[in-house]
Amino acid sequence: MPIYRRAALLTLTFLLAGLVGCQKQQGTKTAQASQDKQPKVLAKVNGVPITELDVAFKMSKSHGTPASQQPERTLDDVIKEELLYQQGLKLGLDKDPGYRAQIEKLERQVANLKRIEMTRRVFNQEIAAKINITTDEVKRYYDNNKTRISSELRLGMLSFGTKEAAEEALQKIKNGTSFEEVAGAGAPGHAPAGPRNWDLGFTGWDQIPADFLDAVYRLKPGEVSPVVSMKETGFYLFKLLDTRPNPKADYASMEGIVSNRLREQRVNDGYRTLEEQLKRSAKIERF
Question: Residues of the signal sequence (predicted)?
Fold first, then answer.
């Protein structure tokens, strides 16, 4: 069900981020050792070195035959490609518009990958690694949220691509159209649901993304939420269909889950705080 997958993914993402953050010192030492060790040069073509890393990369992109996995044969292939590359430069083929367009596309992809990797590293160092959840904090959070933790909700959910489409559907419901009718009608901007595919079944507190908690736990059975959103995933309407007690809501059973949820919230807050700080200190121009 969509909400289960999103919640699991979100939790796993931040757990992994936390683990990476906790190991950042070890990772830094490993990276430094890797930088100190220069790759072995296996050949030179008109003075241009071909290293073991070039061959390993070429082998990682090979498909099919065992022969393509042989280092010597792969080295020969790289040498041939380097010869042809140098010949192309002599012929001026690097000025060809089609070639330039392809290279510019690849450079944009590399720039995007660099941003993604640096974002991950900043996230680990400046946010995840600095968060420490204590036992007292976990117990206090559990006590303050025990009512929610002790309840499972059976939810109906509609997802929308735009806020306007979600608000239009909500207005229809307010005007008398049932949530179920809207779910099956395929309103503009909203993916039509199959027979009761919008019914998520009973969902535990720990399986509901943090951005949705306040909206869904305020509902009484039969009520529909206002439009709620999660960054980069869209807009949603929820209907509370039923509730039941969570049979495993005692503190001993929930301590680890509560700790993870509290960490998730701290990470989210830290990310938003850092994002706002960077925006305030930067000169951003939109055209």
Answer: 1-17
